[in-house]
Amino acid sequence: MKFDTVIIGGGLAGLLCGIRLLENGQRCAIVSRGQSALSFSSGSLDLLSHLPDGQPIATLDSAIDQLQQNYPEHPYALLGAEAVRHYAHQTQTLLADCGLALQGDIATPHQRITPLGTLRQAWLSPTEVPVKSAANPRTGVVGISGFLDFQPQLAAGALRQRGIDAHAEEIELPLLDPLRDNPSEFRAVNIARLLDVPEHFDALYEALKPLSQQYAMLFLPACFGLADNRVFTQLNQQLACPLHLLPTLPPSVPGMRMQSLLQQRFIRSGGSWMPGDEVLRADIINGQVMQLWTRKHEDIALRARHVVLASGSFFSNGLIAGRDRVREAVFDLDVLQSAERESWYRDNVFDSQPWQQFGVQTDGQLHGLRQGKPVSNLYVIGSVLGGFDPIAQGCGGGVCAVTALYAAQQICAQGGE
Ligand SMILES: Cc1cc2nc3c(=O)[nH]c(=O)nc-3n(C[C@H](O)[C@H](O)[C@H](O)COP(=O)(O)OP(=O)(O)OC[C@H]3O[C@@H](n4cnc5c(N)ncnc54)[C@H](O)[C@@H]3O)c2cc1C
After folding, report:
1. 328-370 pLDDT, tens digit each
2. Would you list the domain boundaries of the chain?
3. Distance (Å, rounded) from C-alpha 285 to C-alpha 311?
4. Using a 6 Å cutoff on CB, does residue 312 contact ligand 1?
5. From atom 48 of ligand 1, which residue's Cα is the shortest distance away?
6. Architecture in CATH of 130-246
7. In 75, 199, 233, 377, which residue has its Cα 20 to 30 A from 64's Cα atom?
8. Can you tell me the distance from the alpha carbon of 302 to that of 341, in angstroms, rounded to the nearest whole number?
9. Is residue 29 within 6 Å of ligand 1 at its C-beta?
């Protein structure tokens, strides 16, 4: 099978890269083994909130300057401030084109309210997510009876500590009784499959209506809206006060919506989507990937002029930790890592963990390095890259998006040669 580009991994990075390549007329395939990190994410994307030394950033440009001086392996340091801004802007437009209603902008990061009632800086968040504002309306934090993945008392208590006049409430929804038979079924995604059914709207509305007359704002766990935000919009039109949604423990409804809208766009644009398959190995000759071998297409190789590795970090098995070293699973690319296993971890789990920064080494154009030499037609993007800590630095989604669109641009610039 022949393509212009084959992408390994269909998470945020692989899909954004694939969509951009298709827009530029490329023949493109994505091979993706399983669920991506999006299904477990908040649905908000982080751009950069902290430097590796723990300092909050002042401005994006000054932060990237500091990365270039002190942390040259960070993906943003490799690309530079201008490119990061440029591709972050492009991401905003592309996500909107894919039907994602997001709030936020590079110039104005916001503090989103988390399901624990804490604040976290974000770049882009689904429009339904509450963000910190100067106003302090009396807020009802509403749980759903029997749903354990969201604790309204905990969230309301934490919000009160931040000076927000929040109170815990609970609604009964008998229509969810079929899920209650098995507590492991009573999850946000399964609830959404019921609450997204139009016939169930009235029951949800009736349960929330009295609370909307009592409070100036309501927060509810994000338990509907798998495909779109139709139920959210309708509730906001009919309730007496504004309603916002807090993402719950995984699997996350807003994250799954982002995955499915990007996937749909890729397929509708003519991309070849190969789910449930995995790239097992590659033939590399003279520093170039010649062909890829997958589990399902045993004896039929995938051939492409360009290959993009977007296989994710440890979470998605893009990186594999052995006893003495961490390896990249498909090409055995060079991996940034500290030598001694004892230095991989810090005892305090809340500290920035060194292993979070392990990942593939590239040159300045994101070509993967193998034994120190760039593989000329292989680009590496997203969380399989090394040199950054997505959690402590608050830059996971941003690194994925920016590197994905940068690599797509490098590939398109090479035209049909
Ligand atoms: C649990 C979790 C929650 C997160 N939450 C947030 C958040 O809320 N906001 C934020 O900004 N960042 C978050 N991050 C950071 C996150 O890494 C990125 O935001 C992003 O979603 C990662 O995308 P990715 O495409 O690089 O990798 P992934 O999403 O991990 O996707 C990689 C894909 O590649 C597939 N794959 C791997 N190997 C192969 C192979 N050999 N062949 C074929 N397919 C393969 C995997 O099955 C997977 O589908 C989170 C990370 C994790 C792990």
Report:
1. 999 999 999 987 888 888 888 778 888 899 999 999 999 999 9
2. 2-104+256-413, 130-246
3. 22
4. yes
5. 36
6. 3-Layer(aba) Sandwich (3.40)
7. 377
8. 36
9. no
